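Record 1 of the preview.
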Amino acid sequence: MNATRLSIPYCAVVAIVLSLSAPTARAASQTYQLDPDHTRVTFGWTHLDFSHQNGRFNGVTGTLTFDPANPAAGKVTVTIPIAEMDTGVVALDKHLQSPEFFDAAQFPTAQFTSTAVKATNSKHLQVIGNLTIHGVTKPVTLAVTINKTGTYPAMMGGLTVAGFDATTTIKRSDFGIAAYVPMVSDEITIGISSEAAVEKK
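->
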């Protein structure tokens, strides 16, 4: 080929190749704090197979390291205060906090700490980690949906926020809480809906 017919100079070709091979800039991971006022951890069970009952934990706290451009690199730790249990029945709350069930006096918190995150697609993750309840630690996998990432309106502080929903199912007997199985179901469904925000410096 006649070199005079080349329409792009050699130096321009080199520049294009270098630009294509350069790594794409990504936003750095940020640390988010779970908002207790917008975080709900619910748990559900069956009662004698007649009904499906549920309760929730209030006052949940936690830390999330998250990069929307690379969610699989994320990490999360959540702490759940057992004394903040609310089933809507005060007597049941006290019974569940007793030594027959959670034994809140000896084990006042439950905790989840992630060990790996796998992205299923741009909106769904599998978050694998260790769940500690009643002094027993077992591996669990959360099915997580990324609801939205962005910022609050200026009138709400303009915080950078990430919102998630997550679900999993455990067997309470695996954690040493086996009273009244199977009349009260061994399988417990857990649901989490949360907003987490980056604190302004």
